[in-house]
Fold each of these.
Amino acid sequence: MKKLFLLLSVLFMLGVAACGAAPETPATEPTSLPVVQEEGETVEEPTEAAPVVEEGPIRREVLTVAIGQEPPTLDVYNASNDVVFQVSDTIYESLLTNVDGTYEPWLAESYEIVDDTTIVFKLRDDVYFHDGSKMTADDVLFSILRAQASNFTSTLFGAIDPENSKVVDETTVEFKLTYPFAPIMEAFANYRGAILSKAAFEAGGTETFGRNPVATGPMKMKQWVAGDRIELELFDQYWNEKPAFDNLVYRVILEPSSRTIELETGGVDISFDLPTADWDRIEENPELVLLKGNTLSMVYLCFNNENPLYGNETVRKAIAYAINVPAVAQTAYQGNAEAADAFMAKSIPGYKSGGPWPYDPEKSKELLKEAGYEDGLEVKFITFQQQYYNAAIEIIQSMLAEVGITATIDMVDVATFTSMNNAGELPMTVMANSATIQDPSSALIAWPLNRTISLRHNDQHIQDLLDAGVQTYDMEKRVVIYEELQDYLWEKLYLLPLAFPMRAYGASAEIGNFPYVSTGIPDFAVIEFLGE
Amino acid sequence: MLKYAFRRIMAMIPVLIGISLVIFTLLYFTPGDPARMMLGDLATEAEVQALRDEMGLNDGFAVRYFRYMGDLLKGDLGTSYVSKLPVTEEIMSRLPVTVLVAFLVMIFAVLIGVPAGIISAVKQYTWVDSIVRVLSLLGITMPAFWLALLLVLLLAVNLGWLPASGLYGPKYYILPVISISAVSIATIARTTRSSMLEVIRSDYMRTAKAKGQSPRVIIFKHALTNALIPILTIVGIQFANGLGGAVVNEQVFAIPGLGKMMVDAIKARNYPLVQGSVLTLALLQSMVNLGVDLLYASVDPRIRSQYVIKKKVHMKETPVTAVLANTGELDGGLK
């Protein structure tokens, strides 16, 4: 027994020693919003009648944000997850910025579209990287050529001609395109067209750079504690107006309800991807603000058009008429989605309302009879575990049963689903597309013929219209082309648009100038603090 | 004992090689393409194949396995497909947290479960016994996720006594340890109770009582020591399970542990990370099993004697030893 107690004591001491292996505690525990007064500000002594008046913008030491997953990397040309851009939004900057549809210079001082395949940027001369080196045309060319070569951004920058794009001088870079590509300007203005330090990337490689990116943004990397948090600090040499905080901490909180709890208890100031069940509670909380709105996503019922059954337009429309699209959108998303009336989100230029597809069970039965399925039809859904898609499929299953269509549902894991999707093995499913930039070509990214997902429409007319849509820079002409395309898509119904889902993130009521953005990548640099 | 421990450690090597082959084969034949998972549904087939070539995924099974084993023998567990970091670095960034939490859970569970089991056994059929048994049943049947969220809502949100998530100091460990240890406490308490009841009914316990020994001596010196073997087994199993990471609780409490990392790696078909994690866990669990076996020897002289090489003992001849030698009860010979 004595030996046993001795053993347990030794184990206990080892355990106490192992406490040293715990995650590093930050210098200060992540809390909300301690106040840092601007230098030179004075605070009037309070009298019985006069309230305290603080002059100038309020600065805070720390802004804490909850994210739903850890980014795999912060090398923006090596990933496509939204969380990568949510974290790196204040680290990187782009050549241009989109101000209400107009492309204004940002890191560029000016730009010129010389012709359909030539764009020249004149760069600012006062921009520095986080390592203190100056941004030059060489860095800009390097960054965009990385974008052109990257598998993650080739759809945005694939038109860049790597052989003929060149540095003209220290502050001038000329980009050549291999073909006219209208979305390129939006790509240059997007966070996916970020400028990074060539020297820093070449010195460290993608692995090191991905954990410690060197760019021009107002915040720079301070510390990355794997699985726990990413800390950014203010970049003193930032060329523009600095944010209202000195440190920006992203806490990785995987569980959605835990993110809500941390927001409510003040553990974080902003929380992304809040579960829909918590939206009402946050809206009712006077200390919090719920920022919600539409996304750039469209959820749809995808038919495998290479399958003899779903390749029959009459069968597709018979299935579609049996589905009450507004009811599916409302019910599956618990009131937090709109019925999809187009093939792209409303905020995308070129959006044209053509739906939602009408609900007509009697018409459905007529079409089934016309297609030779008067006695019933068996169809199959394959899906993976995703709350909203699963709910939508179950609702559709019950609607189809009312017109004599028996639907079975097979559930597989997400990796198997992805493989099957790209092997063209999914008969029917519900999934979503999301535009990566606010351009119609991005919203219609599922439609080019070289896509391997199970949609497989094999319709050259669609490809021709897509090609025409990107080859003219005149937005009015582009809108006409995309409207024609959308009319055609309604006519053929290769897929059935179901819903435009909403998204929400929450913030402390003390945070101002923080509007909802449909991309889900808000700009933290413009945040203001409203005081208590 | 040291030789035995060394032999056990050496025996782990073929076991780990076998595990590496099994897990490699399972992952190889599991549907799903890591390159496609990284690039997404809308990447072209050409882009996916280019990435597969870059990652060496288009090589055959044997080529990939022997390449992996070659690197493994050099101590290289490979590079994560997603983060591009060495797998060793990924694992070591999370393993200490998982080990620490598992250790704290084990200590807490033993400190609560063993005494509860002892009291329940000693006070069998009383209200104390009933309470312990009901609480044990609750602990085993209650979903860990549900308990974790209940504790967070009560103690963090409503009362504000404890933080809701993260691991930034000692008080952050309280809620995760309590919620994860519920099952362990219940299991240890039940095992302790049944083991103690079995021992308490033994003849030697009656003898000890008849000899007038105090209840404390009877319970702790005689009963508990003889009941320890099953308890140690259960504690070892619970600790080994804890090393695999309490995935659900890691998610609720935002603990950067191994469990959630492994689940995400499997979903993403991040083969090197899955393989490296499984091998690491297999090694740890083997070490835990060895530790439990050594503890058996420590508490039970009968087991300990099996590890001791028998020596010929030369003893002085006496009437007693002569009789014992004749009957074969005395090993060795007489001087």
Amino acid sequence: MALSAAQRLMEQSKVPPSEIGAIFYAGAIPQSHVAGACASGNPFNYPVALLQYELELERAMAIGISQVGCMGLNSAVGLARDFLLSNGDAEHVLCVSADVLPCGVKREILYNVISDGACAVLVSRGSERNRLLYRRQVTKGYYWDSVGKKNEIIAAYFPTAQHLIRSTLEGAGVTKEDIRWIIPHNVSRRSWEILLDLVELPMERLFAGNIPRIGHVIAADNWINLRDMMEWNLLRSGDKLLLVNFGFGANWACTVMEY
Amino acid sequence: MHTVFVTGASGVLGEAIVERLRIHPAVAQIFALAHQSAVPAGIEPAQGDITAETDLGMEARTAEKIRSEATIIIHAAADTRFSAALPEAQHTNVDGTGNLLNFSAACRQQPRVVVLSTVYVAGRRSGVVYENELEHDAGFVNAYEQSKYQAERQVRKHKDELPVTVVRLSTVIGDSEGHVTRLAALHHALRFYYSSLAPMVPGSDTSLVDLVALDYAANAVVHLAVDGFAAGKTYQVCGGMDCLTLREMLDLAFECFLCFRPAWRKRAIEKPAVVPLRTFELFVRSVEEIGDEGLRASVGVLKHFAPQLAYPKQFDDSALRAALPDLSKPVIRELFPRVVRCLIESGWEPTRWSEAQCP
């Protein structure tokens, strides 16, 4: 799935593989960091290197991102931006995520319905679309044990997200009124009602259409939603977008983008 | 010299009242109506049940002795559970008060009757609540409030035939040293906050949280019953002008957690969000529908009393201050940290002065 998503993106973007300076691959669960069949019994195989090879990204540095749960792709995009800012000769970074829940694992996790899926995002220097204006991430290590601290995480989710959204807007120099769309991670719609009440943003600005349609595609939600909004002509040039995300490993992130 | 009959003597406040009556120079004898719990040492136990119509469930001989000797009756017995269903709360608080009033009317010394109530008979009212006010149609946050409101209405009906006065208590947070002899909803809520299980509280930053010290409350009741009784009055024993706002209370608790348990800082726990009631109810519904037991327990405690904060009000205590001008009241900004400290140091176990580790 990761390869398929990345290949389609590379074809559509028309960016030559040789211009990709780095590939970041994110997976939320350990199984996502083993290429091919686990049955091989070889734990030392690395999907990000396989992707680099298959996509022929000969100049790309390949790095895997784990332990940030559903925030993997979001973290990858943030790191890609930082990579481009600190590597003057790099023009593009390819970010990819893929997760498939193992057979038999319950698909209702912490009030959310989980889907399998993959997504690829190209972060390019000087892009005129979807400019990353500001991003903040908060990690609260106290909640490191996602099962053992399940109740505490649910309780911490709202006040932490509330503070993060407020501080991100402030850091980006935009107001609540400037935000045209909130692009969610596809956790339960009711949790969005609660959170948006807390930050006093109207539900009408939440792109909620994909929550019942595709569920929570682990790390990919924000970016699948952005892609669908583009395809469905929901976005206008200059729209300010707020991407909000949470991942096990106790990470909250919020990004302001301009379409 | 007085003979005092006390109901609810094994409760937190009842116990504190009895302790003071025992050393009061104008009190010669104390009878305590006990249901299941034992009564404090040194007083006459009168096993019975406030919900029993005949003689409050006491042995006929004991009931007769009290009827003939009591000069003061303090009615402290109540079902104070915020989560109780209305019929249960009414059974103890309304029927029980009715039984007590009937018993009082049959006493031969025409005793003074002091009925303890709650300032939250004001229910969902907002604004300033005066002591002489009762009737309203604003509704109630829980069955406890509603049943105590109904009990007070019943008392008012008897005020021409009985020398009766009502003393409404605010939330008793602990004694003036900070010790908490029995944990109540507020203490559990603080524990949930400390443990990162309290995501949000309904209300506004400026909603007032009215808290009062146990010894102040008990002293007030004893003074009003023994030394300065005035029939037909209602007094509010409350913080009054000395209250914390909800925001101040959350901030102060946060500071206390950091101060008295420095390692708590490491957890980076957020302060609960202060939210409209609608948002809080949405969260409660979600947890009740699909949350597991731990979070349900936290939400279960909060949901029965925290909505009161969404109806900001201030309780006036002018009549009480006029009646007891010399009664000293601990300052809440000093008392609250003492209570939080004792809770933290005891691991949220009840403490008494003699047992406590706290200074």
Amino acid sequence: MRAWRRALLYLTRKTGKSLLLFLTFLAVMTLVLLDIAVNRSSEEAAARLQEEMGGYFKIAVDYEKMSIRQQVDQSLIDKVMQADGIGTYNAMGTYYLTLPRLSLIPARFAMEGDSKARQARFLVNTDSSLHESFVLDILTLEEGRHIKPSDQGKALLSKELAMTNDIRTGDTVSVDVTGEGIGDSSHALDDITLEVAGIFDVMQKENKSERTPECDLPANFIFIDDSTGKKIADTLQVRSDTVFNSGATFFVKDPEELENITEQVRGMKGIDWNCLKLTSNNTAYQKSMEPLERLTAMTSLAVWLIIAVSIVLLALLLTLWERDRIHEAGILMSFGVSKKNIFLQHLLECTIVFLAAFCLSVVIALPLADKAGEMLYENAASGAGEEEKEAGGYTYDLDYAKLAEAEDRPDMRIGPAEAAVSGLAGLSVVIVSVGASFVVTARCRPRELLTIME
Amino acid sequence: MAIMQVKEVTYCYTSGKPVLKGVNMTLEAGKVYVILGPSGCGKTTLLSLMGGLDIPSGGQILFNNQDIAQIGLGVHRRKDVAFIFQNYNLIDYMTPKENVELTAVSDPVSMLRQVGLTDNEMKRSVLKLSGGQQQRVAIARALASEAPVILADEPTGNLDEQTSAEITRLLKEKARNFHKCVVIVSHSKEVANQSDQVFRLCDGKISVFNQEQHSEEV
């Protein structure tokens, strides 16, 4: 009688033992697959976060220094962009200009009856989506689109400002800018026509006090494109290299590499660090990574723990099982069945049960993985949700809870490769466990086996 | 012509204590041999050595004039000998038919019928059979293997007198029909009386026992 037939007879006749082994395999493999699914999704989320959130560093003129010999201009930006690992940049400038035709959100100067109550902050951006306020979700785009490097005459207004002045996306706003304020007060600009490309909303509560001027309210910020910024600079007759007077923000591809990249930039020749300052920030990334790292560590630990426990459990179970079968092995050997053949029979039995349990565990683990992942994300997110971060002079909250939201959380799924790897790993555990439990039988002579059984 | 020869076989336990001290036997096909001796004298050990279940410390066991060590103990067990044990040693998750199929060269159903099992009994679990029926299955399994030598270690030890007599008769009858050499280790008078030759194992030595001596001793 061949080994496979003996194996099938054993499995079908010893249903209790087969069921026990099946349930053990099923429990272990379902747990392993669940863990792998959660682990994989948290790793994917981490990678996505790494890509989307990114770390960044900012180079700006250090106005505290006495002599300003170098500005942040396009040539400096091009030089910095040559450093390895930088993905993109946003160059920024700031102008405080008076807007006689628009009503700003009133604050300190309006109360004092000061003419500066009409002074708004114009924020020049090559790419407004990369402005720190948008990156950190202090501001979010409600309508329209962000300002891009190729734009000309485009603006982003706050929702509050747009509502106050009855402006919608696509409207053109003719701004009669009078140079009064921080810019050159002696010049009056021609009309600048700006098309409202988008409307943003201020997400974080403003730390507004009685002393806050109009131009410091985010609701009064007007984001404009680089080309408009140059036009303003030309009209104000300021040096063209001072367009990016607020510096430039450089986004790195991998936030983990931020420190190395900034070191590389600091070491570049032709940059005068005596009048420039470099500040790096990957706080948002690091803080957002905390729950994910916690989750990944937790699931990795769980995988190893489950594997270790299952090996011990299986070895124990199969050793006890094998002890019962010394009797049978002795009988079979007395009829000339080889030890190899007996081992093959035992291996086939466990493999058949394992494969059946593994297939079922895949079916069970798939729907369970999503539920388990959701729970774990919620737990992980709740641990970090109350933390507040301080950056760029604003207090803001990072919305950790959104990690738990279905649309932001990666799908909990088990890929064919992972399933195959777990299956093979499980099969290896089965082979090792069956092998270990077969040692006693393998070492004994047939007569010893028969004596033991007697 | 001798089918099996035991030549100067010695065997020591792992403790070093000798059990067999130069045993010599010659066995022929179609005959029934019985080995007698006190408990612990090494009867089962000798049977195990003849069946290739263990390796002798010294000497040779020849099957058809070839050393079984050269044949290979596994091959010897598979082709040359078949065992019948006192406790039947049937595989408990198999039916009688499947147990016989383990070794069967010939048709297991016909063999089971020959030893007196009904078709219904053949399909039952072996655990649901009586001791006598289980031993019949064990005999059928040994006969179905078509091994020329059957080694039976106290085959009636667990059976009542009547069943024991039936089993012995069956074994002897089938051995003659199938031209087998049967070696039985037994304490039973009935079994010894039905044998062609009786050996006596004592103090590690074996001697041929004649019927008169046997009757007196029994």
